[in-house]
Amino acid sequence: xxxxxxxxxxxxxxxxxxxxxxxxxxxxxxxxxxxxxxxxxxxxxxxxxxxxxxxxxxxxxxxxxxxxxxxxxxxxxxxxxxxxxxxxxxxxxxxxxxxxxxxxxxxxxxxxxxxxxxxxxxxxxxxxxxxxxxxxxxxxxxxxxxxxxxxxxxx
Length: 155
Fold this sequence. Notes:
By secondary structure, the protein is α/β, with parallel strands linked by helices. The chain has one domain (2-154): 3-Layer(aba) Sandwich (Rossmann fold), CATH 3.40.50. The protein contains nine helices and five strands; from the N terminus they run βααβαααβααβαβα. Strands 3-2-1-4-5 form a five-stranded parallel β-sheet. Strand 4 (121-124), helix 8 (131-136) and strand 5 (140-143) form a beta-alpha-beta unit. The longest helix is centred in the middle third of the chain and has 14 residues, at 60-73.
């Protein structure tokens, strides 16, 4: 089984035709669907807060696609054990090791550090927010690329 941790940007790109990373997200979904290996997508609970905002939920087509993918591949990872420490890091002036991250990104970083959570890769459009920690914990980064770059690479 391949287990992929999903940043919120994957869901926005996948479910919005106008998103600048849409084609890349669709390509990953097709890769998952064509995989001989079972694929599980980890959706950290804070990403659900970010993704399932009112604007997103009003778009029927986006919700249908989101639910189809979740029903087939996804499971939720609750943030209880990461929340307090991640929040403390985010609210500090220095943030984390001199870098500044959102609370969702800090929780994703904490999940990457957690050896008790199985994860093979992280799908994101913000690889630079995670590449330092992902390399240490052996988590591959599956980068979302902008549509224009995706099209250029397909030629």
